[in-house]
């Protein structure tokens, strides 16, 4: 991304890979790579920067025909209405909390909460969707008070309509698609991440991601059940992005306006948002399992106690072992506002310089001269050192068992400064990953407080 090329090697075991997310529509992936992902039970997800899921493929799970049949008949059996009531009630509760606690709009919160009894008493899907629409109208109107700021250096380069949140609907599409401002663009992309996780969750529970309930029969092809499962999680994403927007100014370099006015996210911000996917996977899991259990209740009325497995939360396995249900929450990664100290380009939260500046610094004449002087100094020290200078008591056994274990209490800066080495070399010595040259042993023993082998 951003002209950078990264390479990483993963071990065959304990690599921790669960999602391979590609942002963009150019590049190559081999069948062997897809097979390797399948062997590791990892998912492949392809997104674009406009908030669209291009491709999702994950591990293959077995499915029960009775569960799929119940899903297809849910609109007639009453299961669809029960599921919709549960999902929409969770969504409205989350929106009301955000309106009251984050947006400080008690009026909007009361309107949203007033729709909850209507959802519980709904007799049809239209009644549920009407309550959702009224709640959404009040909720998004409260967003108009959100301050949206940019850095002072970007003030003259930011379109005026980027500084306010007018509506969730884009003037370019009369829908949330094709966002015209940064806030809606960030929401669209984050919802796309959630949609990908909802698809994977539906598959894992043996459900058909395309056979939904209140997103069903849309004129635009989409995975309707994945859209249904998103609803209770959307307020969580809204709160996460709202905290970032209200915490400080946005960066003009994170957004790009196309000729038609469509606001698009740049690769750096896309990658930053994509780091939240494991959190949304955890949050959508219990709702996907709830849908499967509700459908099974209508499909297997003779033995309702025989419920499907819980492959995402492992709740059923823990209960079978006598353990109580444990609800684990994963913190959402903070959205940083870091820029390269040299050129001002956006970088990751743990970086100080971008890839281009690091490469340019390494190849500069000044850096090459410093590197050459350091090499000459160390070579001269090697030539001037004699084996007899090392104390007889300071053996390899003493260094391994007494000196190196005690270096953990010594700062890296002190080790590097005393020995005249780099911080990276000091890290390897202190961790035991690299064996220091014998000329350093006595100095290291002094730093560790080991004198005369005691």
Radius of gyration: 29 Å
Major β-sheet annotation: 3 strands, mixed
Class of secondary structure makeup: mainly alpha
Number of strands: 5
Q: Report the CATH architecture of the largest domain.
A: Up-down Bundle
By CATH reckoning, the class of the largest domain would read Mainly Alpha
Would you tell me the overall average pLDDT?
83
Q: Can you tell me the CATH topology of the largest domain? A: Four Helix Bundle (Hemerythrin (Met), subunit A)
How are the strands of the largest sheet arranged?
Answer: 1-2-3
Short synopsis of the structure:
The chain has 454 residues and is mainly α. The protein has helices spanning 31-39, 65-72, 74-77, 79-101, 106-113, 116-120, 125-142, 182-204, 224-230, 234-247, 267-274, 277-299, 315-320, 355-362, 365-384, 396-406, 412-419, 423-431, 441-448, and strands at 19-23, 43-47, 53-57, 255-257, 263-265.
Explain the overall architecture:
This protein has 454 residues and is mainly alpha-helical. It folds into 3 domains: 19-57, no CATH class; 65-320, Four Helix Bundle (Hemerythrin (Met), subunit A) (Up-down Bundle); 364-448, no CATH class. Helices cover 48% and strands 5% of the residues. It contains 19 helices and 5 strands. The chain has helices at residues 31-39, 65-72, 74-77, 79-101, 106-113, 116-120, 125-142, 182-204, 224-230, 234-247, 267-274, 277-299, 315-320, 355-362, 365-384, 396-406, 412-419, 423-431, 441-448; strands spanning 19-23, 43-47, 53-57, 255-257, 263-265. The strands form 2 sheets. The chain has a 3-stranded mixed beta sheet with strand order 1-2-3, sandwiched between helices. Helix 8 (182-204) packs across helix 9. The longest helix has 23 residues, at 79-101. It is globular. It starts with 18 loop residues before the first strand and ends in a 6-residue tail after the last helix. The model has no long low-confidence stretch (mean pLDDT 83).
């Amino acid at each position: 991304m951003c002209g950078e090329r990264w390479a990483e090697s993963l071990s065959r075991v304990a690599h921790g890979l669960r999602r391979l997310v590609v942002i963009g529509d150019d590049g190559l992936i081999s069948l062997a790579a897809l097979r390797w992902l399948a062997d590791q039970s990892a998912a492949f997800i392809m997104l674009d920067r406009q908030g669209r899921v291009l491709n999702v493929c994950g591990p293959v799970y077995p499915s029960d025909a009775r569960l799929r049949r119940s899903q297809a008949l849910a609109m007639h059996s009453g299961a669809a209405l029960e599921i919709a009531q549960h999902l929409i009630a969770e969504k409205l509760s989350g929106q009301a909390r955000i309106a009251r606690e984050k947006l400080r709009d008690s009026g909007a919160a009361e309107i949203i909460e007033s729709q909850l009894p209507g959802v519980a008493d709904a007799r049809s899907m239209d009644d549920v969707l009407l309550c959702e629409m009224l709640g959404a109208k009040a909720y998004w109107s409260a967003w108009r008070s959100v301050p949206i700021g940019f850095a002072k250096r970007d003030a003259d380069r930011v379109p005026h309509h980027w500084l306010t949140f007018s509506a969730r609907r884009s003037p370019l599409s009369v829908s949330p698609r094709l966002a015209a401002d940064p806030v809606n663009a960030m929401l669209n992309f984050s919802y796309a991440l959630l949609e990908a996780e909802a698809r994977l969750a539906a598959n894992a529970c043996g459900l058909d991601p395309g056979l939904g309930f209140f997103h069903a029969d849309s004129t635009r092809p989409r995975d309707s059940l994945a859209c249904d499962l998103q609803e209770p999680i959307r307020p969580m994403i809204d709160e996460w992005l709202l905290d970032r927007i209200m915490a400080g100014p946005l960066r003009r370099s994170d957004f790009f306006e196309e000729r038609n006015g469509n606001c698009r996210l740049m690769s750096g911000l896309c990658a930053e948002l994509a780091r939240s996917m494991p959190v949304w996977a955890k949050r959508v899991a219990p709702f996907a399992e709830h849908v499967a259990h509700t459908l099974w209740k209508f499909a297997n009325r003779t033995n309702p106690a025989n419920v499907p497995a819980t492959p995402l939360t492992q709740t059923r396995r823990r209960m079978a072992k006598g353990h109580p249900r444990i609800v684990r929450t994963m913190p959402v990664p903070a959205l940083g506002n870091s820029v390269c100290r040299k050129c001002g380009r956006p970088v990751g939260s743990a970086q100080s310089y971008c890839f281009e500046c690091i490469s340019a610094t390494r190849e500069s004449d000044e850096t090459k001269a410093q590197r050459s002087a350091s090499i000459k100094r160390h070579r001269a020290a090697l030539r001037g050192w004699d084996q007899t200078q090392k104390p007889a008591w300071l053996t390899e056994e003493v260094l391994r068992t007494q000196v190196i274990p005690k270096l953990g209490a010594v700062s890296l800066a002190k080790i590097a400064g005393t020995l005249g080495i780099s911080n990276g070399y000091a890290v390897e010595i202190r961790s035991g990953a690299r064996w220091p040259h014998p000329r350093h042993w006595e100095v290291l023993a002094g730093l560790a407080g080991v004198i005369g082998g005691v």
